[in-house]
Amino acid sequence: MYHSFFGLAEPAFSIAVNPRYLYMSQQHKEALAHLLYGVAGGGFVMLTGEVGTGKTTIIRCLLEQMPDNTDIAIVMNPMSNVPELLTTICDELGATYIKDEPSVKDLTDALHTFLLHNHTHGRNTVLLIDEAQLLSTQALEQVRLLTNLETTTQKLLHIILVGQPELKALLSKPELRQLAQRVTARFHLTPLTLAETQAYIRHRLKVGGLPEGRNPFPYAIIKRIHAFTGGIPRLINVICERCLIGAYGSNKVRVDNEIFNAARKEVIGGLEQSQATKRSFYWRLAGGFISIVLLSFALYFTHNRNTHNTIKTATAQAASTSSHSASSSASSAPSIALHNYHEAEDNLFTYLNLPLAPETRPCGKNLKASQQCAKVTLHTWTDLSDLNRPAILIMSTPEKFSTYLVLIGLNAENALLLNEQQEKIIMPLAKLGRDWTGEAVYVWKRPPAFSDTILLGDSSATVAWVAQQFAKLDKQKEPLSDDLFSLALQERIKIFQRSKGISADGTINEQTLLKLNEVIGADKTLLTDFSEAGNHVPTP
User: Fold this and answer.
1) How many other β-carbons are positioned within 10 Å of the β-carbon of residue 181?
2) Least buried of 302, 383, 515, 521, by fewest C-beta within 10 Å?
3) Which of 514, 496, 494, 482 is nearest to 391 (CA)?
């Protein structure tokens, strides 16, 4: 098989779970420390992360480090039905209950009895719920009530919630605020950095038995692997496996660009997509022409309707503006959605008090070096709140046309938008979320010379700038470093990263700089107080 060709004792990148290949990055270690602390303290502990970022790895390590006097109930497939959930928990712990259609009270009483018995015998009880984002609001509220089972000195049940990022958004709901307040420790796993991706690949190869002095993955290929996978360990395994098979088939001991490209196509189904692309080319060409015709017709129709009628779109465009005034029955509410992206850019820059000119559009080639325009894909309103920047939200109408909203504020229930007249409009998130694609464009002030993540030992003007900002924040006469990224500065950055709830990897990356800009006031952030906004778009 291919692994022997590289001197490996076994396939190093199998996606099958194997404890011998366990790799704990710095953030995995910190996540484990958070969970161990939370379990010891009682209440809720929460671990979130995208699919494939290593949540299962953390759970396994956590379970291995639990004391021997611990009973653990693990719910791997949570149910939204409350009685079924409680029944599963009782079955996992071995708590006895009436088998014939037990009520919620019967099951809760059975759990209480079991927990008291465990406590009096010096045993701890832990409930771990995986994929917790699938739980209903009612089920989560019932889980919260289980923490009310306590003595005068301590909780009888420790609860660990593990899930995808949607779990954070779920707990941000007003009706679950009591549960959110009881979360004593939380950690969000992010994908591996480039340096961690390199270390991860080396670790797997070493455990697999790669001989000293051999390395099938040059650094340039590792960079491409990281870019392709986004630092997701599971995807790294898949692409590395295909690369090694491709190198073996080509009789090469090092993966090159040709082999990587072929492996990437296999992973994403590129060969099938290529054939499908050829078969559907003319259909897509015809479809594109038809789309252009329909778009032209729709824009013409929308323009005329603006002149005579109230416009109602799924993105909550309130009405035609005064420049398109018509019948007396038309609404006087201002227009919100913009159909031209450049108009949205201009609107955002005007709000940010940044200079405008046709040749220096916000996201154009001539954007000032000190300003960075970025486009991101987010998943929840919580992600947008964490970004904490005014942004252009890219929307999609029911007819699949793109429109654009300029967001300048956000709270738990509403968004604060800016129309083309720079008037503030409040819109319920429930209405806004229907057509948001998840894509957003924002602008931030980029520190001098920053272009990519800076690691310990690097020298850069960005390092000097960061050191100076922390000296000001800490009221120190001298910065911790000049332009050389020192260990002292790295430790200060880690403290800052922890305080902001982001990955404490000690690097100078974009996420850290965004948070630093917020603290020093370099970037304008989202408003949370909408008291000055006079216009509302009501919930339908």
Assistant:
1) 12
2) 521
3) 514
- What is residue 433's DSSP assignment? T
DSSP secondary structure string for all residues of 455-500 = -TT-B-HHHHHHHHHHHHHTT-SS-S-SSB--HHHHHHHHHHHHHT
Question: What percentage of residues in the chain have a pLDDT greater than 90?
Answer: 19
CA-to-CA dists, residue 405 to 131, 408, 409, angstroms:
33, 10, 12
| Res. 316: pLDDT tops 60 | no
pTM value is 0.48
Identity (one letter) of the amino acid at 136? S
d(CA 515, CA 305): 44
Residue 198: CB atoms within 10 A of its CB come to 17
- The whole-number pLDDT of residue 290 equals 41
Query: What count of other Cβ atoms lies within 10 Å of the Cβ of residue 98?
Result: 11
Residue 61's pLDDT band (cuts 50, 70, 90): confident
**43: which 2 tokens?**
């209440």
Q: What is the mean pLDDT of the chain?
A: 79
Three-class SS of residue 118? helix
- Residue among 219, 279, 229 at smallest CA distance from 255: 219
For residue 345, give both structure tokens. 């850019």
Q: What are the structure tokens assigned to 400, written together?
A: 């699949």
Residue 398 Cα to chain centre, angstroms? 26
- CA neighbor of 126 nearest in space, from 136, 138, 114: 114
Full DSSP string of 497-526: HHHTTS-----B-HHHHHHHHHHHT-S---
Tokens linked to 323: 């420049």
pLDDT at 248 over 50: yes
- Report the 10 Å Cβ neighbour count for 458: 15
